[in-house]
Every structure is written in structure tokens, then in C-alpha cells.
Design a protein that fits this description.
With about 400 residues, the chain is α+β, with helices and mostly antiparallel strands. It has 8 helices and 19 strands. The strands form 5 sheets. It has a 5-stranded mixed β-sheet, with no helix packed on it. A 4-stranded antiparallel β-sheet has the order 3-4-5-6, with helices on one face. It has a 4-stranded antiparallel β-sheet with strand order 9-8-12-13, with no helix packed on it. The longest helix is centred in the first third of the chain and has 44 residues. It is rod-shaped and about 170 Å long. The chain starts with a helix and ends with a strand. About 20% of the residues are buried.
Length: about 400
């Protein structure tokens, strides 16, 4: 019984599901099998969803926009990066230190001509030195030294200036100037000028006979360089002036403003070279009277002959009159000899032989006045042994009426 009831129940449920359900005709819409309704119960065709289509368009537009934005960003980045690179390159190349480094290479290579050409003011070149001498002096200030450069105290953004140092000492200054501008307003720098001060610290004082001529580096000094005149002592003039002779005094010259120690030469009254000595204690050059004379050999023999005769007159081996040819008339020197008591007394002796005749000093004051110091020895036969008697004369010779005579003697 129980089984029969289940079967019946199942049949009833099946019949119910297979029987269509009809709604009241009062409703104009009939539900279709998809749960949607159509008018008069007529089934409607299936359509695509409108929202889904709009989503696809939006995604496409967004994708295109993203690509465009990405391309724009990449392009902008590239352009900006190029700008930064170009600007940095322009900025770095516009730095004054680059120009200074290039200028400094001329100092390192000792290019003095380049330095000279870019100096607005050149050192004064005197007549005793040349431009090449100054350049050589400038070269000596940097050659073989450690060269560096630093910003000087006058450095400014508008006018950069650098100090050149040699072994730590400032020897010059390099100044730059703007001559235009590059891209992005960066300035263009160029060399404005080079300052390379050199000081002429050398000079000389020279004392020479007044009738001589002094030369500095081969150039004669004129009277504008004279600082002092020293006349000769009157006591010496008395030996020559009464007979027309003359003795020059001494003249001192001074010169400064030289870059190197000068070459000092002196020529005497006749144009002959005179020895020049340097006195370090007084920092002075000196030249004495000349020892050159066209007739020196003749005059020296004249002096020896006179001194020999004079010695023999004194020793009473010659007569006083043998001295007459050597003196002018009314000579004071001759009168003094004639009055000398030494002529009246002398030790007795035998034969006399002259030896070791020598002109020990010869001074030519000028063409017509000469001084000599003459030395001779007399070998006299005395008992028990021979004796040597020396005689030295100091004689002034003056040309009188074309003939040389002794105008004075100094004892």
C-alpha cells in the first residue's frame, strides 16, 4: 500500500509540471521561457548588451591615450635630457678657468714672445739694453721654477684675474674679459691682458780720469750721467802747469735702471782701453790714468838715461852740466839739484857700473804730459866689497816746444 501511494504521488507531480500554466487573459504580456515578456505574448529576439560595447570603446580609447601620453613623456624626457646635456656642455665650456688653463700653457712652455705681445705696457728699454735683454730677464724669472696659478685678489665674476706664481712668488697676472655669449646666455671669455712687472735693479758708479770715456754695454756715457768732479791736487799741478802741461782730475758717473749688471769699459784720452777694477766695498768701478802712449818706448829710455845721469851726478861720477839737456831753462827742479849739498860729499869709491834699470811706473796724463818712476842701481867698487847704491826718481815730463823735458821732480 505504501508503495502504491508513492507512485501516485509521483504521477501527480509529473502531470503538474507538464501542464502549461495559462495566466488570465486580462494581462497583455506573456512571460517567455527566459523570464522576459513580449507584447501579445509574442516571443522577442535576443539583443547584445549595450553597456559591454561602451566598455570596449573606453578601453580602446584609454589604451591609445596611454600610448600617446607615454610617447609624449618619452619625447619630452629626451628633449629635456638633450637640453641638460647641451646646457651643461655650454656652461662648462664657458668657464674662465678653461681659458686660463690655455693661457697658462704659454708660461709653462716659456713662450716669452706670447707674454710680451699680450702686455699692454712694456718695461722701459734704455739705450744701454735691448728688448731681447728684457725678455731674457723675464725668462729667468720663470725658467726652471715650479709654476702655478691661483685666483688673484682682484678676481671678480665679470673680470676674472689669476696670479702666476714661480716657486711661490707672484711674477705676473692674467686678466680675462667677456667677448660675447654662447647658447643659453653663457659668456665667452678671452684673454684681456698679461701683467708681468720687471724691475731694473742694476746700476753702476764709475770713477775715471776726466779726459777718459766710460762705456756701458758699449755705449758711451755723456755729461748727464756725471755726479761728481774731483780736480787734481794743486801740489801735483805745480810740476807741469808752469810749463804748459796738464793733469786731469777724476769724474764719477752713475747709471741705474738696468736689468743686468752692466759691462763697464773705459777708453783713455787716445782711445786705448784702460783697465777697470771693481771695488766691492764701495760698489764702484775705477779706472786710473792711462799707461799707453805712442812714444812710450822713447820716453822710458829718456827716463832711464836721466836717472842714470842723475845718480852719477849725485855720486860725483858725472858733472852737473850733463843734466842740462833734460831740463827747460829756469827749471826749479834743476836749481834744487844744483843747490843740493849731496853733490858736495859722497863716499869715495872705484868704478861704477849701472844695472837693473827699470821704469816702475808710467802714467800718460795726455799726449803732452807724462809721469814716470824710474829705478836704477849703481854697483860701486868699494873696499873690501862692491856696494849697490839704488836710485829712484819721480819725474814729470812735458812736451815743451815739441821737445820732451823734465818739468818737475817729486822727492
Amino acid at each position: 500500500m505504501k508503495k502504491h501511494d508513492q507512485s501516485k504521488s509521483y504521477s501527480s507531480e509529473s502531470a503538474r509540471m507538464s501542464t502549461p500554466v495559462v495566466k488570465s487573459q486580462s494581462s497583455p504580456f506573456v512571460a517567455d521561457n527566459a523570464g522576459r515578456t513580449s507584447a501579445a505574448g509574442t516571443p522577442k529576439k535576443k539583443k547584445k548588451a549595450k553597456g559591454k560595447k561602451q566598455f570596449h570603446v573606453y578601453v580602446a580609447v584609454l589604451f591609445v591615450w596611454l600610448i600617446a601620453v607615454t610617447c609624449a613623456i618619452l619625447y619630452g624626457y629626451k628633449k629635456f635630457n638633450t637640453f641638460l646635456i647641451d646646457y651643461e656642455s655650454s656652461y662648462q665650456s664657458s668657464q674662465p678657468s678653461l681659458v686660463m688653463a690655455e693661457v697658462f700653457t704659454h708660461f709653462e712652455s716659456y713662450d716669452i714672445d706670447y707674454i710680451w705681445q699680450n702686455m699692454p705696457e712694456h718695461p722701459t728699454v734704455s739705450q744701454f739694453e735691448s728688448e731681447d735683454v728684457i725678455k731674457t730677464y723675464m725668462l729667468s724669472m720663470i725658467e726652471g721654477k715650479t709654476l702655478t696659478y691661483v685666483e688673484s685678489g682682484e678676481y671678480s665674476a665679470d673680470r676674472p684675474a689669476y696670479a702666476i706664481e714661480a716657486d711661490g712668488y707672484v711674477v705676473g697676472t692674467v686678466t680675462l674679459q667677456k667677448i660675447g655669449q654662447k647658447e643659453y646666455g653663457n659668456p665667452v671669455w678671452a684673454l684681456a691682458d698679461i701683467s708681468f712687472p720687471v724691475l731694473p735693479l742694476e746700476g753702476a758708479m764709475i770713477t775715471i780720469p776726466s779726459n777718459s770715456t766710460v762705456y756701458i754695454n758699449g755705449i758711451a756715457l755723456d755729461d748727464t750721467y756725471i755726479t761728481e768732479e774731483q780736480p787734481v791736487d794743486e801740489d801735483e799741478l805745480q810740476y807741469v802747469e808752469p810749463y804748459g802741461g796738464s793733469i786731469p782730475g777724476f769724474t764719477t758717473y752713475a747709471i741705474s735702471g738696468l736689468y743686468y749688471e752692466p759691462q763697464v769699459t773705459v777708453k783713455d784720452y787716445a782711445g786705448n782701453d784702460s783697465p777697470v777694477e771693481y771695488n766691492a766695498d764701495f760698489d764702484r768701478y775705477n779706472a786710473n790714468y792711462s799707461s799707453c802712449h805712442d812714444e812710450r818706448e822713447t820716453l822710458e829710455q829718456f827716463g832711464i838715461d836721466f836717472t842714470t845721469t842723475f845718480a852719477n851726478v849725485i855720486s860725483m861720477d858725472a858733472d852737473l852740466t850733463e843734466l842740462d839737456p833734460y831740463f827747460p831753462p829756469d827749471s826749479l827742479a834743476y836749481n834744487y839739484i844744483s843747490r843740493s849739498t849731496a853733490l858736495r860729499y859722497f863716499t869715495g869709491h872705484g868704478a861704477v857700473t849701472m844695472q837693473n834699470e827699470e821704469v816702475q811706473e808710467f802714467i800718460a796724463y795726455n799726449e803732452d804730459t807724462v809721469y814716470m818712476q824710474v829705478y836704477v842701481e849703481q854697483e860701486m867698487q868699494m873696499w873690501p866689497d862692491p856696494e849697490i847704491v839704488p836710485t829712484t826718481t819721480h819725474i814729470y815730463l812735458t812736451r815743451i816746444d815739441g821737445e820732451w823735458q823734465i818739468s818737475g821732480m817729486r822727492y
